[in-house]
Amino acid sequence: MAKIIAVNAGSSSLKFQLFEMDDESVITSGVIERIGLEDSIFTIKFNGEKDVRTLPIPTHKEAVHLLLDTLLEKNIVSSLEDIKGVGHRVVQGGSYFKESAIIDEDVVSKIDELKSLAPLHNPAHLTGYYAFKEAIPSAGAVAVFDTAFHQTLEPRCYIYPIPYKFYTDYKVRKYGAHGTSHYYVSQKVIEKLGNPEHSKIIVAHLGAGGSLTAVKDGKSINTSMGFTPLAGIMMGTRSGDLDPSIIDYLIEQVGMDMKDVIHMLNKESGLLGVSGVSSDFRDVLNAANEGNERAKLAIDIFFRRVIAYIGRYFIALGGCDAIAFTAGIGENSAYARKEILSLVSEALGIVVDDDANENGEGERLISKPESKIKVYVIPTNEELVIARDTKRLLNL
Fold it and tell me: Active-site residues (predicted)?
């Protein structure tokens, strides 16, 4: 009975899922939010019930101890030694890691070295790692990197057209993100296509953060996020691609400093920035339906940013067997899927099954048989990928 916990430590949060790996069932799951504040929120789901508590949780270390104490108090595990492996999501693995890795001193040093590329995340991942290592020294630990799936990109796709020394000396290149999700979803689609030797798939991971990836024969050949997750499509609060001269203009003409501009592009732009309503697609859509013109504009821009990458990757792949929608918007908004597909349906020969799109649930095909490209909805499961890699690498 191998129990493995998949952990995602963010800058102020700790998400978790505890798996029984014999059948890959979820024993418990939850999240600790607002770490570092007096009103931190601890949510845990177990046996069909959800327990929510608000209390001060100063650090990630205390968050880990609270979680593990709760597992014992609720008799979710009889002993912490029942947990044989801890799988840690790590946002930035740079060019060091083409796959998941057992965490040792060398892996720790590389994650720490790369913190300048993910300053909000990599330090938190290491804090989580040390906290679990101290609490359950008998459990093995594995790092699963968001960037690993995109290490199959060729230099012509990851090198930026700036002086080459910035790549060689400072590691400036496209790394991508959401790789664990893109891997999981593309593998699911390949299965649904009958496990062909060759396949051309576009995965649209659309949520508060969003990215698209072109997957050829199971490997990422290009992805929309770049050096950081700020690049690519418009997102909840991120601008996505824009003319970099805008940054200089805002500094020189508006009087902003660089940190203010980057904060604005990451936290105040996207759906929130254009609509003025919210970063949540549902809120913006409700406002648009009530006649808010800026909300309508925000949604229109969002859809067109997405189809620009669908078109780009259709060409890069030399055609497309399937498009898969996943993540918060991709999985849950029938309207978003329909409108995005309507914008490319004539060019790509896509025919949507409206009933499957609007009324279906879970993994499903939402295109009609006559559609030239199959379209799927595939709920992502990054935690399961983390748990599987942890089991495999630790031989559990």
Answer: 146
